[in-house]
Design goal:
It contains 3 helices and no strands. It is mostly helical and 54 residues long. The chain has one domain. Helix 1 packs antiparallel against helix 2 and helix 1 crosses helix 3.
């Protein structure tokens, strides 16, 4: 099983959407459920960051 936390951390370090997409394509290949979970966690983290910076 792939480590969601490690994938999330690496993906969040990529600021360009295309780079992030390519990384997730590689890291989550053959596991669409994992990718969906990681994408949801990225979105939640970004929303929290935006809310904190207001």
């Amino acid at each position: 099983m792939k480590d969601k936390a490690t994938i999330l951390e690496a993906a969040r370090m990529l600021s360009e959407p295309e780079e992030r997409r390519q990384y997730l394509d590689f890291a989550c290949k053959d596991d669409p459920k994992l990718r969906g979970e990681v994408e949801a966690m990225i979105e939640a983290a970004e929303q929290a960051q935006r809310a904190a910076s207001r």
